[in-house]
């Protein structure tokens, strides 16, 4: 049947560690931890040798060092990882008709209908070998009729291997695995399921759908479907977004520096939030200012990859102070982030200040719930009309409202 889907999930094994090993072969075979290196740091990636000691990603670095004292600890270099990630993306892009890049190190590939020509497993296998040969990075994949089963299969294939789940065997493949293997079952949900005596996927398969709904709401339904190997979500063609920006034209030209500064902070916070929502980071900030005589000036600054307010706001304000001429009336200001890369959540773990990271994550949760102007810094309070716009859904930005004094 040609309408049967064939979906591959590919995931680069311990990606950051693998990149570091390509740069320094002495790291091969040794326990390696990558992340924020101070006591407040968090593990962004760890080698299989370190995992044997119970280390896992997102663990506080201090704890990881206690568990595995002989581990080599590295700061991590997001620019290097982005380059390797792009190398892998290029190989995939040249080889398949439809792929989706969901983070810096994982991809979904839709090979539906390709079996008429070569056989999907053979095609995926050859692609995997090509990636290993051309980039030197280990990569694993799972192949099945949908995203969920393929992603779980990749987890079972690791390290550096592949699994093909034959159509019709999805349920028996999933049955013996822990419910934790289902994407979207985090620690809280796992605890709820454990309290119900549910540890294996098979138990969920045997439960009535209504019971899962009663216990976990709509989440329960999704988990039940995934446990039963049902997932109709499509592979969405990947498009690299190069930049995001926002600008504001004043209804009345101004020299009010307090107002300007407040607005710049609000614009920067808003764009940073959009970056985090899209799981992206920026390495270049640009500030633009136009005076009442229509003279326009822009300046940019390269920074370490980030999506964090406390890194971006000072960079943008620094550009503003360099460009601002106090004697002139300002007509327009704009902020732009470019050189974007995906996989922000992982790379943000290099942040040494875990408090900052936790705070930002809590604030973002509130924004998701109550709107993206729900929580803003005091300095950004003035700017009431920063647009609510998700730059990663392909829609053009709305025109920002002019605000008359």
Which outline best applies? globular
Largest beta-sheet characterization: 5 strands, mixed
Q: How many helix segments?
A: 14
Mean pLDDT: 87
CATH topology of the largest domain: Alpha-Beta Plaits
What is the total number of structural domains? 3
Radius of gyration, in angstroms, nearest whole number = 24 Å
Q: Calculate the terminal CA-CA distance, rounded to whole Å.
A: 65 Å
Helicity range of the residues?
Answer: 25-40%
Structural class: alpha+beta
**Which CATH-level-2 architecture of the largest domain?**
2-Layer Sandwich
Helix/strand order, N-terminal first? EHEEHHEHEEHEHEHHHHEHEEHEEHH
CATH homology superfamily of the largest domain: Reverse transcriptase/Diguanylate cyclase domain
Q: What's the number of extended β-strand segments?
A: 13
What's the CATH first level of the largest domain? Alpha Beta
Keywords: Cytoplasm, DNA damage, DNA repair, DNA replication, DNA-binding, DNA-directed DNA polymerase, Magnesium, Metal-binding, Mutator protein, Nucleotidyltransferase, Transferase
EC number: 2.7.7.7
GO molecular function: damaged DNA binding; DNA-directed DNA polymerase activity; magnesium ion binding
Enzyme class: transferase
Write up this protein:
40% of the residues lie in helices and 20% in strands. It has three domains: 1-146, Alpha-Beta Plaits (2-Layer Sandwich); 168-238, DNA polymerase, domain 1; 243-380, Dna Ligase, domain 1 (2-Layer Sandwich). The longest helix has 21 residues, at 257-277. By secondary structure, the protein is α+β, with helices and mostly antiparallel strands. The chain has helices spanning 15-23, 48-51, 61-67, 78-95, 120-135, 147-157, 170-174, 187-195, 201-206, 209-227, 257-277, 309-323, 344-347, 354-370, and strands at residues 7-12, 32-35, 43-46, 72-74, 99-103, 106-110, 139-144, 162-164, 243-254, 280-291, 296-306, 330-338, 341-342. The strands form three sheets. The chain has a five-stranded mixed β-sheet. Strands 9, 10, 11, 12 and 13 form a five-stranded antiparallel β-sheet that branches. The chain has a three-stranded mixed β-sheet with strand order 3-2-4. The chain starts with 6 loop residues before the first strand and ends in a 35-residue tail after the last helix. The chain contains 14 helices and 13 strands. α6 links the parallel β7 and β8 (162-164). Residues 384-405 have low confidence and may be disordered.
């Amino acid at each position: 049947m040609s309408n049967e889907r064939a979906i591959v999930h590919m995931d680069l094994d311990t990606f950051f560690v693998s990149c570091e090993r390509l740069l320094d072969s002495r790291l091969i075979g040794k326990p390696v931890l990558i992340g924020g290196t101070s006591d407040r740091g968090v593990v962004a990636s760890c080698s299989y040798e370190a995992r044997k000691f119970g280390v896992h990603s997102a663990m506080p670095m201090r704890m990881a060092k206690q568990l595995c004292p002989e581990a080599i600890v590295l700061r991590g270099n997001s620019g290097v990882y982005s380059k390797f990630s792009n190398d892998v993306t290029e190989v995939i892009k040249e080889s398949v008709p439809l792929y989706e890049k969901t983070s810096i190190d994982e991809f979904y590939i839709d090979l539906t209908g390709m079996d008429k020509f070569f056989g999907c497993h053979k095609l995926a296998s050859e692609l995997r070998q090509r990636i290993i040969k051309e980039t030197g990075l280990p990569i694993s994949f799972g192949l099945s009729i949908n995203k969920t089963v393929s992603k779980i299969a990749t987890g079972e294939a690791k390290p550096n291997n592949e699994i093909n789940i034959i159509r019709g065997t999805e349920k028996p493949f999933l049955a013996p695995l822990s419910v934790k293997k289902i994407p979207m079952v985090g620690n809280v949900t796992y605890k709820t399921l454990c309290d119900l005596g549910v540890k294996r996927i098979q138990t969920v398969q045997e439960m009535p759908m209504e019971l899962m709904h009663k216990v976990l709401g709509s989440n329960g339904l999704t988990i039940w479907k995934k446990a039963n190997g049902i997932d109709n979500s499509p592979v969405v063609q990947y498009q690299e977004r190069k930049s995001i920006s926002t600008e504001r034209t004043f209804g009345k030209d101004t020299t009010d520096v307090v107002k300007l500064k407040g607005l710049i902070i609000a614009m920067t916070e808003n764009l940073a939030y959009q970056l985090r929502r899209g799981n992206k980071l920026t390495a270049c900030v640009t500030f633009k200012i136009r005076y009442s005589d229509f003279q326009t000036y822009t300046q940019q600054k390269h920074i370490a990859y980030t999506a964090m307010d406390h890194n971006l706001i000072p960079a943008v304000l620094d550009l503003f102070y360099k460009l601002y001429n106090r004697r002139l009336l300002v007509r327009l200001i704009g902020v732009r982030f470019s050189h974007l890369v995906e996989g922000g959540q992982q790379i943000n773990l290099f942040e040494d200040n875990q408090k900052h990271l936790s705070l930002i994550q809590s604030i973002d949760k509130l924004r998701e719930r109550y709107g993206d102007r729900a929580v803003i810094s005091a300095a950004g309070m003035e700017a009431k009309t920063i647009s609510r716009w998700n730059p990663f859904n392909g829609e053009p930005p709305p025109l920002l409202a002019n605000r008359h004094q």
